[in-house]
Amino acid sequence: MSQNPASTSGTDPIITMRKVEKHYQNFHALRDVNLDVRRGEVIAIIGPSGSGKSTLIRCINRLETISSGEIVVDGAKVEEGKNLAFVRAEVGMVFQQFNLFPHMSVLRNVAIAPIRVRGIPKAEAEKRARQLLERVGLSDHVDKYPDQLSGGQQQRVAIARALAMEPLVLLFDEPTSALDPEMVGEVLDVMQSLAATGVTMLVVTHEMGFARRVADRVVFMEAGQIIEQGAPNDLFDNPQTDRARAFLSAIMHGD
Amino acid sequence: MDLITTFFNIDVLRQAAPLLLRGFWLTILLGLTSLVISLSLGLVVVLIRLYAPKPIRFLAIAYIDLFRALPLLVLLILVYYALPFVGIRLSSFWAATAALSLVASAYMAETFRAGIEAVPRGQFEAAQTLGFSWPRMMADIILPQAMRLVVPPTTGVSIGLIKDTALASVVAMPDLLKQATQTQAFYANPSPLVGAALLYLILLLPLVRLVSVLEARQKRSR
Ligand SMILES: Nc1ncnc2c1ncn2[C@@H]1O[C@H](COP(=O)(O)OP(=O)(O)OP(=O)(O)O)[C@@H](O)[C@H]1O
Ligand SMILES: [Mg+2]
């Protein structure tokens, strides 16, 4: 990767969430969420189904609007208007269902946003797209269409597509949950190598092994709240709250 | 024997041919003009219907409902015979084009809506998270997928439109049907009508077949 977000590192957070509340009609999905994400940090977000993990990261790029509180990304408040374009361009996202553009080739999928959003010339964008696809191990598939690829390959294209915008932050919402078990590893490997280059990442995941290996910090959520957070070894081996302990022991003893 | 001289009278057909072909050409021209206008108008209307602020959105809904409810023949006669009272005088060709385009665009809009609504939410979200502006997202990501989905029903609406061009003969437009009825009266022989029917079939049968093929292909690729 040409630019390395970690190189501009400091202790200043790249994302700040302050007193964030989120309601879906009557349902209280996020309660007083406060979170600082430092540049280059890799955060794993874990917690039971329905605890608000997806909602939290989707508020960061305003796929969901918050009810109150404040989210700031790289100095720009996340709100409707001019800031939104900036935030969307700086924050990449990888979805559980890949969401590749089915009517475009793999190469086009990766090159289209830099061309249309950043205004980069087509030849240059495609050259860079090829480099990114090589980096995720898909050099031989650039001319294929998404439906000709396996799930693991599609998700790697989706990661390359997000990287093509050179985002400061990458959000992952259960990137391996829709994959056949034998393909989970190839996607996690790509994510691990990304983490090593200093990209800031927020990863909602059920892959506890990955969280332990790769994350700098693990955030445990339940019922819309951040219950506990800490370094992976501390949180996994020595949880401080009953709820985190109950959740972890439940998943350790097989679903 | 008698049947042939009555319905397929070669002499009459030969003499009527230039007029019939002229009418055929006008029918095609009317159909194509209305098609282009109704496709463009339908796209504009559906985008307003789905994405404009509330009050304007209701206008689009009213437009769509109105022109799907109003019989085309009534609309055509209104445009041709009533509008002159308020000073709007359209030639028979443009009166027919206007009526056909208004009605067909309402159906096109509904067809397009089904297509846009069938594009998964994740496609919108992926485009938004990559920073696409709304117009770019629609043009590059959403509409290409939506339009692909609705090619068969859109072709169906187009066939209906081309058939309905025959109504233009009511406002004295010398289209295929009008030429046929006039030459039939002139020669006191129905062969021109049969000739006209055949020309309509030449135009429309391939399109009808095309819809079936496209539908079958789409079902297979699901
Ligand atoms: N659009 C919506 N309308 C109403 N309720 C919603 C909506 N989206 C999410 N919710 C509710 O908000 C809560 C949190 O949902 P969210 O998707 O953030 O959970 P999650 O932690 O990601 O769960 P999972 O592990 O199952 O993905 C859930 O109870 C869910 O039912
Ligand atoms: Mg979720």
Residue-averaged pLDDT of chain B: 92
Number of contiguous helices of chain B:
10
Which strand order do you get reading across the main beta sheet of chain A? 6-7-8-3-9-10
Q: What overall geometry of chain A do the principal axes of the alpha carbons give?
A: globular
Instruction: Work out the helix count of chain A.
Output: 9
Instruction: Label the structural class of chain A.
Output: alpha/beta
Briefly summarize what is shown.
Chain A is α/β, with parallel strands linked by helices. Helix content of chain A is 37%, strand content 25%.
Explain this structure to me?
The complex is a heterodimer of chains A (255) and B (222). Chain A is of the alpha/beta class and 255 residues long. Chain A contains nine helices and ten strands. Chain A has helices at 53-60, 82-90, 106-116, 122-135, 151-163, 181-196, 208-214, 232-237, 242-252; strands at residues 13-24, 27-38, 42-46, 68-73, 76-77, 91-94, 169-173, 200-204, 217-222, 225-230. In chain A, helix 3 (106-116) packs parallel to helix 5 (151-163) and helix 5 (151-163) packs parallel to helix 6 (181-196). Chain A is globular. With 222 residues, chain B is mostly helical. Chain B has helices at 2-7, 10-51, 54-69, 72-82, 92-118, 121-129, 134-149, 151-164, 176-187, 191-221. Chain B is 83% helix and 0% strand. Chain B contains ten helices and no strands. Chain A binds chain B through residues 61, 63, 85, 88-89, 91-93, 95, 97, 99-103, 112-113, 116-117, 161-162, 165, and chain B through 120, 122-123, 125-126, 128-133, 136, 140-141, 144-145, 148. Magnesium ion (MG) binds next to helix 1 of chain A.
